[in-house]
Amino acid sequence: MDNRQTALILARSRAVLGLVALVLPGVLNRLWLGKDAATPSAKALTRALGVRDVVLGVGALTSVKENTQGPEWLSMGAVADGVDAVVSLFVRGAPRRTRLVALPAAAGAIGGMLVARALADERTAAQGSVLEPSP
Q1: 130 lies in a domain?
Q2: Helix, strand, coil shares of the chain as percentages rounded to 5?
Q3: Is 58 a domain residue?
């Protein structure tokens, strides 16, 4: 699988996770934060995070397909995943599962940054070959 395909999978996954957060915030909160986290306020925050992920996912998907700003969109998503991981690790009084959610979030952050960097390098190499005069 090449970097573009991996980037598209990451972008689609982010958008789908965002939709799940919008449609089923209570379920996601119970999985992430425990049974006491299905309050109306927590659901509102989860929906806000869902919108964030839909926007980042669709932005990455579109820009990777169009070969424009894919690395930038992917890296923004990776930063969001990194923040999610750190926040999940340091929530006081949260159940153990909250800290376990930090693992896939951290993996998403690292993977997203690696793919973003690889796509940026590919873009730079392609631009360099276009700019170099032929002998």
Answers
A1: no
A2: 85, 0, 15
A3: yes
